[in-house]
């Protein structure tokens, strides 16, 4: 094969005098290999011993050599494969598996599969398809994956559980959850892996409700394992289901305490869940007791502090990360967290210093997300000109998120109408003119300037183009159940009681001098009474009213909202926390707000 043996061989190989005993000893030698250097020596010995032995024996020994090299040196294994005259299905599958599990050669798994079909001497079997489908999933090779699915059907392997699990994973990874579910539903026999892949697919796609529904069903058939629990924890994080997340955490500790305590991935999932569900003290507790941390652990904690507005803690965590014994070096995501913390705290100089530190000392190339943080930091601090200059000098084209953050800053910093209109134009060009958010923000600019005619024109433009405002939606968690409300919602079974609580809130706030900010209702009604009425029906106010009605005294009301909190609702929530002596935690699209005793953790800077 043109391969040269290295000078030294394991001493026991030189003691072989009987040629009949050579192959069994070589098999043992392959099994005991710990490096490619040892394997090459054994391979060279194999070549010298091959003559006079049955081809099947030689082929089997070569297959074991290929198996080791496929996970240590793919170039060597591919050259070995090319020298095998009649590779069997195990050899084809072994090299395909090596390609599929590699970082840089996954496309070669598809090339090898096609080569296998063209060769025609060996038919793909049930062990072939999981490897090639794994490569398709990683590469988002949807067309190729569909063709492979057709091959599976043609070969009659669509009843194999292992193959179907790979199909579910492929379709779910590519975002085709309906097709993944179709394969899942048609399976005559499902393993726990089948359920895990389906649950994880929904959790990763953001459909947390369906993921949790499947989790409830799987418990009737199997005892969930660590993979199940990680997926469910991810779903809880997406939905903000703190009580269910805590139940899953307790369940995991009960079933496999040692595994949970020592498993970095599980602890990272719990960290992320508690941060996203508003329980930062639980996240800190998990982080503080982890026997081992990786860069994801530190990133989760830094981002958690940042989104909860605990800026000093986020920056202190970054310093500790740089000094920690585990030598976790900051990466691109780390600096997203650090810059976000500076942004939430309005720390302009610090943010610019960390941005420079990332590039000059840590040698991390600034990505669009990093520029977005700095631009938003400058804009929200009122430095709109500096923010626009940075946009002009970026090495990449600004995306719609950057333009929308600038437009939002224009609203809050009372920028000129001309500047706001120019930024709005850029947003529309980036989005294709179809997103309602820019129209809402621009109408707010006009409303703040009392230019109600332009507000009416914006509404008409939206109507003419068939663009509707994204409805505000808030969910409140009470006694382990999630209750959702849209703006002006009357569908809840306790609507009458909720609106009675709203009346009490309104009377109490009026008695302490509350006057609504009508600019926050510009897109809803035209007459003054209508605007004031619409404000009290914002989704988070309905959720707060229900929370006051049903929550246990002393327990914070936890609310999750799909949009940014408007200025008026922010002010109202502060007043409610003081007048009704209740703590309210609101997670909006960007960050957490902790309302208590008439103040907010964001210090009115968001």
Mean pLDDT: 85
Put simply, the count of helices is: 30
Shape: elongated
Between the first and last Cα atoms, what is the distance in angstroms?
67 Å
Structural class: mainly alpha
Largest sheet: 6 strands, mixed
Beta content: under 5%
Low-confidence stretches: 1-20, 522-532
Q: How many β strands by DSSP?
A: 6
Bin the helical content. 55-70%
Rg, rounded, reads 30 Å
Q: What's the arrangement of strands in the largest beta sheet?
A: 2-1-3-4-5-6
What does this structure look like?
This protein has about 600 residues and is mostly helical. It has a domain at about 475-600. It contains 30 helices and 6 strands. It has helices at about 20-30, 35-50, 55-70, 75-85, 90-100, 105-120, 130-140, 140-155, 160-175, 175-185, 190-205, 210-220, 225-240, 240-260, 265-275, 280-290, 295-305, 310-325, 330-345, 350-360, 370-380, 385-395, 400-410, 415-430, 435-450, 450-465, 495-510, 530-535, 540-550, 565-580; strands spanning about 475-480, 480-485, 555-560, 585, 590-595, 600. The protein has a 6-stranded mixed beta sheet. Strand 4 (about 585) and strand 5 form a beta hairpin. Helix 2 (about 35-50) runs antiparallel to helix 3 (about 55-70).
């Amino acid at each position: 094969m043109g391969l040269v043996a290295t000078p030294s061989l394991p001493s026991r190989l030189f003691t072989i005098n009987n040629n009949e005993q050579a192959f069994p000893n070589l098999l043992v030698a392959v099994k005991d290999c710990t490096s490619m250097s040892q394997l090459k020596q054994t391979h060279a010995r194999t070549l010298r011993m091959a003559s006079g032995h049955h081809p099947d024996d030689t082929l089997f020994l070569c297959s074991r050599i290929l198996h080791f090299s496929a996970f240590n040196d793919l170039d060597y294994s591919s050259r070995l494969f090319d020298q095998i005259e009649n590779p069997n299905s195990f050899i084809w599958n072994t090299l395909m598996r090596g390609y599929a599990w590699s970082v840089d050669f996954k496309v070669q798994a598809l090339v090898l599969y096609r080569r296998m079909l063209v060769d025609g001497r060996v038919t793909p079997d049930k062990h072939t398809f999981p490897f090639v489908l794994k490569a398709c999933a990683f590469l988002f090779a949807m067309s190729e994956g569909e063709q492979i699915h057709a091959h599976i059907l043609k070969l009659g392997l669509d009843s194999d559980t292992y193959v179907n699990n790979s199909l579910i994973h492929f379709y779910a990874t590519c975002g085709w959850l309906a097709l993944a579910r179709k394969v899942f539903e048609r399976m005559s026999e499902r393993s726990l892996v089948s359920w895990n892949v389906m649950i994880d697919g929904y959790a990763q796609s953001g459909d947390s409700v369906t993921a949790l529904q499947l989790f409830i069903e799987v418990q009737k058939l199997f005892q969930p394992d660590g993979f199940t629990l990680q997926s469910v924890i991810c779903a809880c994080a997406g939905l903000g289901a703190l009580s269910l997340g805590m139940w899953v955490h307790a369940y995991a500790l009960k079933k496999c305490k040692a595994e949970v305590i020592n498993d970095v991935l599980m602890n990272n999932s719990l960290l992320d869940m508690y941060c996203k569900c508003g329980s930062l003290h639980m996240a800190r507790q998990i982080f503080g007791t982890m026997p081992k941390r990786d860069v994801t652990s530190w990133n989760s904690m830094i981002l958690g502090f940042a989104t909860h507005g605990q800026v000093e803690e986020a920056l202190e965590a970054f310093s500790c990360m740089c000094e920690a014994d585990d030598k976790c070096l900051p990466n691109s995501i780390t600096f997203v967290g650090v810059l976000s913390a500076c942004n939430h705290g309005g720390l302009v100089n610090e943010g610019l210093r960390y941005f420079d530190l990332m590039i000059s000392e840590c040698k991390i190339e600034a990505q669009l997300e990093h520029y977005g943080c700095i631009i938003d930091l400058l804009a929200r601090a009122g430095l709109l000109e500096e923010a626009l200059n940075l946009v002009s000098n970026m090495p990449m084209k600004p995306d719609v998120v950057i333009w929308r953050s600038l437009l939002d800053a224009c609203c809050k910093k009372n920028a000129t109408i001309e500047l706001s209109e120019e930024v709005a134009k850029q947003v529309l060009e980036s989005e294709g003119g179809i997103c309602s958010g820019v129209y809402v923000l621009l109408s707010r600019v006009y409303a703040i300037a009392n230019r109600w005619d332009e507000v009416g024109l914006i509404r008409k433009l939206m109507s003419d183009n068939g663009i509707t405002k994204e409805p505000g939606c808030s969910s409140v968690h009470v006694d382990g159940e999630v209750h959702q409300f849209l703006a002006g919602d009357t569908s809840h079974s306790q609507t009458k009681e909720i609106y009675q609580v709203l009346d009490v809130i309104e009377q109490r706030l009026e008695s302490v001098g509350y006057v609504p900010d009508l600019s926050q209702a510009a897109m809803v009604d035209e007459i003054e009474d209508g605007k004031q009425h619409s404000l009290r029906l914002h989704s988070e106010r309905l959720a707060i009213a229900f929370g006051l009605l049903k929550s246990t005294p002393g327990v914070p009301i936890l609310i999750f909202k799909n949009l940014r909190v408007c200025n008026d609702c922010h002010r109202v929530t502060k007043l409610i926390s003081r007048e009704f002596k209740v703590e309210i935690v609101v997670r909006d699209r960007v960050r957490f707000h902790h309302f208590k005793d008439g103040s907010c953790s964001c210090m009115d800077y968001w």
